[in-house]
Design brief:
By secondary structure, the chain is α+β, with helices and mostly antiparallel strands. It folds into two domains: about 10-150, 2-Layer Sandwich (60s Ribosomal Protein L30, Chain: A); about 160-330, Phosphoribosyl-aminoimidazole Synthetase, Chain A, domain 2 (Alpha-Beta Complex). It is about 35% helix and about 25% strand. The two termini are about 25 Å apart.
């Protein structure tokens, strides 16, 4: 059994044929490789996405809360509409204390308050058998005009491809934060790597990109890393991505940590790394505005007719498993 997200085949066999009632107000239903759904309320578009909530106590409960909520917000933020509402449900392990949960929840509240997001409903309980890190799920929402939505499957031939931050930012930041003593690098490099975890936020970056040029699609590079994201985005749009690997930004700490852990950076999870397509001529404008705002970004390729992903002119395979999973299993083994 492959860990992580289900395959396209599994989705189309088991899930897509059974989606409840057909309603005319659903503008975009579940689609493999597309981050969110959309439904209509009196002419307004409601963008919504649901994700698991993780809590990693080793990060500290405040930092873990901020990390967890931004993973949820990203799938709505890539629509181009700012997240505005949040529903959240917790199935907590019995060992979490009231003080620990209070710290975790205060961090989520603070991030939502800063971003003008209201928590509108939820559920909180402790249950026997519940364990870290997966402690529930949350649904983020945004409200706006249908015409303002940027779809993850909107890439078109002739578009340019922009990538922010580079590969394996999340995996690198997470492992350096959780297992610093198990990575054979200097304390200075480990510290630099651990700070990358704070760069897994996308809400501000999506707003900058949206306002900087004619953006046709945005997608967050999560499981499967940047290569997986290229494949998901190209497949969902029915186009071919042509990518120049040398143009992709690479954080120095990522290169060092991935080498030390023998982890492929290109297929390791990287929440916070945005893949953006723009109309021809707008890629440099979007990359420049993101860079001005403090986020590394570069034009890394073009969109063409066809299928698949070409990297440096050669066809690439879609990742079957995230490269970070096996590394996590090794690092988390206390033997």
């Amino acid at each position: 059994m492959t860990l992580g997200k289900i395959s396209d085949q599994f989705f189309h066999t088991h899930i897509a044929p059974q989606l409840g009632a057909e309603r005319s107000d659903v503008a975009l239903g579940p689609t493999h490789g597309v981050d969110f759904g959309v439904f209509d309320v009196n002419g307004a578009a409601v963008v919504t996405a649901t994700d698991p909530i993780s809590l990693l106590p080793e990060l500290g409960f405040d930092r873990a809360g901020r990390f967890a909520v931004h993973i949820v917000l990203s799938d709505v933020a890539v629509s181009g509409l700012p997240p505005s509402h949040l529903s959240i449900a917790f199935a907590l392990p019995t060992k979490i204390t009231d003080a620990e949960f209070a710290t975790f929840w205060s961090a989520i509240h603070a991030e939502c308050e800063r971003l003008d997001i209201a928590v509108v409903t939820g559920h909180t309980a402790r249950y026997p058998g519940a364990t870290y890190p997966w402690i529930g799920s949350a649904t983020a929402m945004a409200v706006g005009a249908h015409a303002d939505i940027i779809r993850p499957d909107g890439a078109k031939p002739g578009n340019e491809i922009v990538l922010t931050k580079g590969p394996a930012v999340e995996a690198t930041g997470l492992f350096a934060s959780l297992y610093p003593s198990k990575i054979p690098l200097s304390a200075e490099m480990i510290n630099a790597a651990s700070t990358l975890l704070e760069r897994t936020q996308t809400v501000s970056d999506t707003a900058v990109a949206r306002d900087a040029g004619n953006v046709t699609a945005m997608h967050d590079a999560t499981e499967g890393g940047v290569i997986g994201a290229f494949h998901e985005m190209a497949s969902s749009a029915g186009v071919q991505f042509r990518v120049d690997r040398e143009a992709i930004p690479m954080q120095p700490a990522v290169k060092q940590v991935c080498t030390a852990l023998n982890m492929d950076p290109w297929t390791a999870t990287s929440s916070g790394t945005l893949l953006i397509t723009t109309e021809a001529g707008d890629g440099e404008k979007v990359a420049a505005k993101l860079s001005e705002a403090g986020t590394d970004a570069a034009v890394v390729g073009t969109v063409a007719s066809g299928t698949g992903v070409l990297i440096d002119g050669k066809a690439s395979d879609r990742p079957t498993e995230d490269a970070s999973w096996s590394v996590y299993a090794t690092l988390s083994d206390n033997k």
